[in-house]
Amino acid sequence: MRSLLFLTLAVLLFGAVLLSASVGQFPIPVGDVFASLFGSPSSDPMAEATLWNVRFPRVVMSIVVGAVLGVAGALMQGVFGNPLAEPSVVGVSSGAAVGACLTIVFQLTFFGQFTTPVIAFVFGLAATLLVYSFARSGGRTEVVTLILTGVAINAVAGAGIAFLTFLGDQQAREQIVFWQLGSIAGARWSYVWTVLPLAVAGIALAAVLARRLDLLSLGERPARHLGVNVEVLRLGSIVLVALMVSAAVSFTGVIGFVGLVVPHLIRMIAGPGHRVLLPASALGGALLLVAADLGARGVITFVDLPIGMLTALVGGPFFFWLLRRTRQQAGGWA
Amino acid sequence: MKPEMCCENVSVRLGGQQVLRDLNLTVASGEVLALVGPNGAGKSTALAVLAGDVRADAGSVWLDGRPLDEWSARETARRRSVLPQRITLSFPFTVAEVVRMGRAPWDDDEDVVAEVMEQTEMAAFAGRKFTTLSGGEQARAALARVLAQRAGVLLLDEPTAALDIRHSELVLRTATSQAAQGNAVLVVLHDLGMAAAHADRVAVMSGGSIVADGPPNEVLTGDLLSEVYRHRVEVFAHPRTGRPVVLPWRGEA
Asked: Among A166, A218, A303, B182, which is most buried by a count of CB atoms within 10 Å?
């Protein structure tokens, strides 16, 4: 059952990658994409250049960012013990976005190519810590408190971004606006190489925590009784979430709800155990984002829609449905 | 070292209230100790102090002859298990997965998991989602998880609260058999009759300290219980077993 899930996800992802690389203003047959990928370059140098300079960086970026967002969502839900905790819902993404906007407006470059991720990480971590300390009481996170904390943090972060947009010059403003909509259109290999190590490290560390996250779902005290160092687990997970979200946000803007939809669907198929949930959410997130990127380019001919808009369009109603369901099951707003 | 846990002169203040004062309590290998007392006497806090959930403001807590602070979380988990009063689960794991969580301090061992599921009559529920079980079934699944931990000291906070007669008896017989294997079992109980019938030793708490501690037939007397519970209580010997039977005084109808 579980290996079938992984196999299905992997096959679908591979198919979506081939399809996504073939579709665009300059269509390239899927067969040529496949051939180029496995060592026999296309006879058309134009097709070859399009694939390797434009399409593949974009597809790989979708995979990396999707995987990171899926895992960050699952991890956050595990730590909060709440299926509604998601980086964009509770304001972690917009917190990181404030940091990233700062580097755009003031053209900060003191850490080289890592400047944006680093500043985004600092702000994202601050937002995560705020949510965590405000939304919890007595070791549990109530749905309504969590959502309202998210509303507050999103509002403050929104004000920060608005102020930075106001401060910035014409070019910075345009950059901020489009970046806020979430887009993979500008992906380049240099961006991919910046995000990839952060993503791999984040996902690998999250996988190490999987078993302990299972125990945490019993509650903090029972987890401690079973030998889990709960404080270390919580802090480690929060830093990981902030790291992964800010890495993703730095280059693609705010792409919401991936971390909400994907882990939820995986839980419905394979159960809530984190040893399956985390890797499957990585694959599922990658698949969702590659497919969404394909949709962003394919829905209207010659128009490259912002991908964050698409994920929010699907994720928003899904979030509402989940909220209602959780509310019914918990018997009230608990 | 035989499993043993104790606390010496422990005092705890919570929210400005003195909840425990100079508490001395020992649970030793081979015995079931029932901790009883009226609401708010500090029973659950006493258990929480032994479990390491609540820090003592004064006094010390010992596990197997060493201060509790000196054990690592994992070492502690291998030596004592805790059944909480309120059972929660954030995600819909199956019963088998929940019970398997009890093996976390050790290597996975499916034989142990199967055995404790049998012991708590939960084998038929293995594949069911924990969150869809009734309160009593959840309580038994949680007990199975605690038993799977194979710890020498068991701290059980009101394990029978949600259970019917059959399963209450099952749980306390399980506690007794754990003690017979050389484990130390502390069980917080509300039902004095249960404590009288199953415990080797009973400790009565009132106002944050122990007011009586000893074998059931010595400790559970009408006078003491009437005073502690502020309600007249009658105690008589069971005609067949000789164990004390405790009932609240009820006037003739």
From this structure: A218
